[in-house]
Structure formats: structure tokens, C-alpha cells
Design brief:
It catalyses: Endohydrolysis of (1->4)-beta-D-glucosidic linkages in cellulose, lichenin and cereal beta-D-glucans. This is Endoglucanase. Keywords: Carbohydrate metabolism, Cellulose degradation, Glycosidase, Hydrolase, Polysaccharide degradation, Signal. The protein has 496 residues and is mostly helical. It is built from 20 helices and seven strands. The chain has a three-stranded antiparallel β-sheet with strand order 1-2-3. Strands 4-5 form a two-stranded antiparallel sheet. The longest helix has 21 residues. It is globular, with a radius of gyration of 22 Å.
């Protein structure tokens, strides 16, 4: 017993030592998490498509894409541009909506006056998702032709590229998108919880639509990128398969409706979550870790023993994240940043950190810990790990740079974002056509419009960061980086 206690203590010491030794930047100054929260939510207003509302706060943006859907006789205006381009991709938009909703569900009580703005950010997305799912057994999954869009560098207000509309239906399945992404069962169901007490009628509409979309996705199984490959790949190609999206949708429908059919669906299909290579994946393409953490809350509350295997999967996920014993597919930079191969690393940092914090909260309420071999992962340790990632983003890193635009004294100035890098309509009323924007893209000058709250893809594995537009994997912001960060910042603004 004494030997085991000593071994556990040494394991905990290694993890704790990592947290402190990885802080190469100045520590102790603290961060204004509420200011960062306000800015992280403001970012979504700069990503809006469609007719902007009177209370729009990002003034360098104007109305855009007001005829989306006209080629198919539908009003498909609204929603969000996912990143620095002018396409409305369904996959990332639905994931963004789900994580914004989850942030509010778990941490809305910590948002203070920013809660109303977070709810508005969700509704801007769900109003659009309702439009693209209005026809039974049809989901419009993308507006805009990515190839023509990526061939131009122009403001969304000036778009003259193709606004092609892509859909899935009974003949062209897309369980992944319908199950969670563009107009998804999961996003609509999660948002229905957000609006349950705020707008009951709207909440019921969202939940009923979520049921309809999930049923369609389950009846017509298949990956949307199989039937729409030429339009969606390689941008948001579903590499992981559609099964986890169906389960993700069922989990949120279970949480929102408490209907037995969704609980039984989840239990029946749990086998798809046992793939070891996906243990610490969570993002727009892979829901494994998120499913396990979300369901584990019910197990920890002692009311769902039939979900016990999901709790074990969640424990395995937590252990795979811990420094020193982490999974081969996950590394830490010398400065302490979570790093996974592929582009836009901050999407992994924020989504995995969100799960660490959410699971920590669930463990804490149940007075539980996670055994990880020689180490015990306590709720406090998980919060410390998540906070370390947030602090890195806000400036506690080897470069002393905040990776949130507009936060702190030093942040990226040349982000890969069309609207931010081109002069605003107010400053330059004349149209800037497709290739006319290239000189702004290639300019070494800072972006004229500061896209406050935008979190970029971030540094590489060596903590190096090129503040340059052409390096899009490092310098491009996305909605799905910010969405989980909203929940993290909300919590730490109340528990610094």
C-alpha cells in the first residue's frame, strides 16, 4: 500500500511539474478572463452572413450574401462564415452551434452580462439551421462554391463568386451532416435546451426539427462527402465516418427530450466508440471523446448505470491527455500547448480543454477522480490543465503573444481573413473584385480591420508562429475554435 501511494504521488508530481516547467512566459500577471470572454463572443458577429441586425457591434462588416438560396427557390440567408473565407459550410457550423450551446448549458451561469450575447450567437446559427432543414428529408449543407471562393480574395460584401447550393436527400445521404453538422440534430437539440426557459415555443420548434432531421439521417445512412465529394472535399471531408455523428445526435436528443428511444439507441450503438485511435479526438469530424464525456455526467450522477462503458471511455480519454502519459497521437509543445497533427491546431486545444473542464465539473459534483496508472486525475488537476491551455492562448507562452486578436498588448496582426484584411466598405466604398484583393493578401501590412476575439490556428509544435496571411493553418481563425473557448472563459472569469 505504501509503495502504491508513493508511485501515485510521483505520477502526480510529474504532471504538476510539467504544468509549471512549461510556463516559459511571464507568470503571475493574471488574465482578464471576462474581457477575453466578451471578445470571444464578439468574434461571431464578425462572421455573420446575411442581413445584419440593428444592434450589430462589429461595424466594419455590412450585409452580405443576401440572395443565398435563390437558385433553388429558398431563403438560405444568414448563418456564419466558418473561417476566413466566404463559404457557409454546414459541418463546422453545426459543431460550432452545439459547442456554443453546451458552453451556455454548463457555464452560462458564469457569463454575467455576456450571457445574452452568447444566446444571440446561438440563435443566429439556429435561425439559419431551421431554414436549411425546413423541407422534410432535405438538408441544405453548403452555400457557396469553395473552389471559386478560394480563387478570390474579396470581402463578403463584394462576393461575385458562385453561391452554389448543395443538399442531401434520400438519394444523396448525409448522416454526418444531418446527424450533427450543418443543420443538425445535435445542434438543434442542444440549442433547444438553451431556449427552454427563455423562449419555450422556439425551443419546441428546435427540438421537433432535431427529431425530424435525426430520423431522416438514420433512415438514409451515409457520409455526405461521399455524395458531395467534389464540393466539400478536401475542405470539410468526413474522414471519420458518419456513425459517431448519428450517436452524437442521439445523445443530445436524449439529453433534450429524455425519451427512452434515444437512450436505447445510444446503448445499442455504443460499440462504435471503442476505436483506440480516436480516443482523444473531438471536433467537427470526430465526436468520440465528446460523446463519452457528455454521457458520463449521467453515470456520475448515479442514474444511468447502463452508460457505464461510456464513463470508462471518458476515463481513458482523460488519461490520454495527461502530460507524461499522453496518447501517441497527442503531444505537448515545449511551451505546454496541446498539439495534434494537421491544420488549425487551436481547434484541438479549445475543444479538448473544454472536455477537460466539463468532465472536471462532473467529477467534482460526484466527488470522484480518474485513476490513470501511477497518476490520479483529480477534478482540480483537470481544471489546472484546461486553464494552462487557456492561459497559453491569452499570452502565457514562449512568444508572449496572445493568439486572440485584440486581447493583450501583442496579438496576430495579419490574420488569414478576407473581411479583416481588406479595407471596409465604409473606408473603401468601391467594389474590390476577385483578383483585386490579392495585393491586400500579399501585403506585409497589418489588417486594417481588427477582428476582435478571433483566435487563430496558432503556433506549431515548436511554439513558433508566422504572423502571415499565406500561412493559413496558423493564421486563420474559425468559429469552431472559439465556440468551446466561450465556455472555458466563462468558467475562469468566475473562478480565476
Amino acid at each position: 500500500m505504501a509503495r502504491k501511494s508513493l508511485t501515485t504521488a510521483l505520477g502526480n508530481l510529474r504532471v504538476t511539474a510539467f504544468l509549471f516547467l512549461s510556463l516559459h512566459a511571464v507568470i503571475g500577471s493574471g488574465h482578464d478572463y471576462h474581457d477575453a470572454l466578451r471578445k470571444s463572443i464578439l468574434f461571431f458577429e464578425g462572421q455573420r452572413s446575411g442581413k445584419l441586425p440593428p444592434d450589430q457591434r462589429v461595424k466594419w462588416r455590412r450585409d452580405s450574401a443576401l440572395h443565398d438560396g435563390s437558385t433553388v427557390g429558398r431563403d438560405l440567408t444568414g448563418g456564419y462564415y466558418d473561417a476566413g473565407d466566404n463559404i457557409k459550410f454546414g459541418f463546422p457550423m453545426a459543431f460550432t452551434t452545439t459547442l456554443l450551446s453546451w458552453s451556455i448549458i454548463d457555464f452560462g451561469r458564469n457569463m454575467g452580462p455576456e450571457l445574452k450575447n452568447a444566446v444571440k450567437a446561438v440563435r443566429w446559427a439556429t435561425d439559419y439551421l431551421l431554414k436549411v432543414t425546413a423541407i422534410p428529408d432535405v438538408v441544405y449543407v453548403q452555400v457557396g462554391d469553395a473552389y471559386s471562393d478560394h480563387n478570390c480574395w474579396e470581402r463578403p460584401e463584394d462576393m461575385d463568386t458562385l453561391r452554389s447550393v448543395y443538399k442531401i436527400d434520400g438519394s444523396h445521404p448525409g448522416s454526418d451532416v444531418a446527424g450533427e453538422k450543418p443543420q443538425p440534430a445535435a445542434a438543434l437539440a442542444a440549442a433547444s435546451i438553451v431556449f427552454r426557459s427563455r423562449d419555450p415555443a422556439y425551443s419546441r420548434l428546435l427540438l421537433n426539427r432535431a427529431v425530424m432531421v435525426f430520423d431522416f439521417a438514420d433512415r438514409h445512412r451515409g457520409a455526405y462527402s461521399s455524395s458531395l465529394r467534389s464540393a466539400v472535399c478536401p475542405f470539410y471531408c468526413d474522414v471519420n465516418g458518419y456513425q459517431d455523428e448519428l450517436l452524437w445526435g442521439a445523445v443530445w436528443l436524449h439529453k433534450a427530450s429524455r425519451r427512452r428511444r434515444y437512450r436505447e439507441y445510444v446503448v445499442k450503438n455504443e460499440v462504435i466508440l471503442h476505436a483506440g485511435d480516436t480516443i482523444n479526438e473531438f471536433g467537427w469530424d470526430n465526436k468520440h471523446a465528446g460523446i463519452n464525456v457528455l454521457i458520463s455526467k449521467e453515470v456520475l450522477m448515479g442514474r444511468a448505470e447502463y452508460f457505464e462503458s461510456f464513463k470508462q471511455n471518458a476515463d481513458d480519454f482523460i488519461c490520454s491527455i495527461l502530460p507524461g502519459i499522453s496518447h501517441p497521437q497527442l503531444q505537448y509543445s515545449p511551451g505546454g500547448l496541446i498539439f495534434k497533427a494537421g491544420g488549425s491546431n487551436m481547434q484541438h486545444v479549445t475543444s479538448l480543454s473544454f472536455l477537460l473542464l466539463a468532465f472536471s465539473s462532473y467529477l467534482s459534483h460526484a466527488n470522484k477522480v480518474v485513476p490513470c496508472g501511477e497518476t490520479t486525475a483529480s477534478p482540480a488537476l483537470l481544471k489546472q490543465l484546461a486553464k494552462r491551455q487557456v492561459d497559453y492562448i491569452l499570452g502565457d507562452n514562449p512568444l508572449g503573444m496572445s493568439y486572440m486578436v485584440g486581447y493583450g498588448p501583442r496579438y496576430p496582426l495579419r490574420i488569414h481573413h478576407r473581411g479583416s484584411s481588406l479595407p471596409s466598405v465604409q473606408a473603401h466604398p468601391a467594389r474590390i473584385r476577385c483578383k483585386e484583393g490579392s495585393r491586400y493578401f500579399l501585403s506585409p501590412n497589418p489588417n486594417p480591420n481588427v477582428h476582435v476575439g478571433a483566435v487563430v490556428g496558432g503556433p506549431n509544435i515548436t511554439d513558433a508562429f508566422p504572423d502571415s496571411r499565406p500561412f493559413f493553418q496558423e493564421s486563420e481563425p474559425t468559429t469552431y475554435i472559439n465556440a468551446p473557448l466561450v465556455g472555458l472563459l466563462a468558467y475562469f472569469s468566475a473562478h480565476p
